[in-house]
Amino acid sequence: MSKNVLIIDDSENVRTQIARELQKADLFERIFQAGDGIEALKLLLKTPIDLVLCDLEMPRIDGFKLLGMISARKELRDIPVIMLTGHGHSELKIKMLDQGASDYVTKPFNPGELIARVKVQIKIKSLQDELKKSNERLKQLSNTDPLTLIYNRRYMMNMLEKEVQRAERKGTHLSIVMIDIDHFKRVNDKYGHQGGDKALVALAAISQAGLRSYDFIARYGGEEFVLTLPETAHEDALMIAERLRTRIQSHSYTGTLKGLITTASMGVATYPTDFITSLPDLIREADDAMYRAKAAGRNRVFSMNQE
Ligand code: GH3
Ligand code: MG
Ligand code: MG
Ligand code: MG
Fold first, then answer.
1. Which of ligand 1's atoms lies nearest the C-alpha of 221?
2. Interval 188-207: pLDDT, tens
3. Options 3.90.1300.10, 3.60.10.10, 3.40.50.80, 3.30.70.270; which CATH number does 153-303 get?
């Protein structure tokens, strides 16, 4: 992995000396230098830096000020900073560590010690980076349905709670479409469970295509999906559902599913109304409307107001 280091010191002599040691140790792909805090901050904001070596005493912006600036910015906060100081007072060292420094080296520095401390920080940083990445992967995994790769029910419920609150706060409408595939058992019977799985993957993709960026589709259950439409009035949601119903019906499957026709029954509900004042109300009404669509003969969109 290529790593970048930044040396900040107002003395060019010190910078050159440190750069030479770092070069010898061959730990970094690129070694950047800055003579003052402003130059350093500019560089940090436009270049990915993995470690900072920073002088404490500099004119205008000193090491403490720079530490403060680095920890105030979310994108810089995790970069380890090793302070370079001429003094050995304990108080000063404590203050540096308190203010966010990862370590310190006293000048004139011992090259062996400097490199050893640099290595420790690189190790910690790369472990932290790995941890962050695997946390992100886990989070994504916990929100994703493994078969269709769209959001799962858990994510949907979390988001819906937020969307209900947002609609409440902003005085807008939130619509959902409950979607249940018609006679899906027959698909499994005819094409096998694997064939059924393939159909579900295709249906998820069809449902996701053409959505606005803030709309999202989730797998609610086996062959049930929910489409969430923030800031969408009931009439508009009915139109969007109807468009999706047509798209599903006219989809031509290929490969082993060639010739298959799937249809879906949908129920549309919108928050808030006199009888939909909470998230459970919204889901119940969408579900009820979907069942009325089934009862009325399937392959249709029913509104919460429709008997
Ligand atoms: P309808 O909704 O029109 O009343 O009929 P249906 O046949 O779809 O009825 P139901 O909801 O009772 O059955 C859904 C079927 O979907 C049952 C189950 O075998 C199938 N199913 C659910 N999850 C999966 C899955 O992950 N893969 C496959 N292949 N089939 C699934
Ligand atoms: Mg100095
Ligand atoms: Mg079902
Ligand atoms: Mg079904």
1. 23
2. 999 999 999 999 999 999 99
3. 3.30.70.270
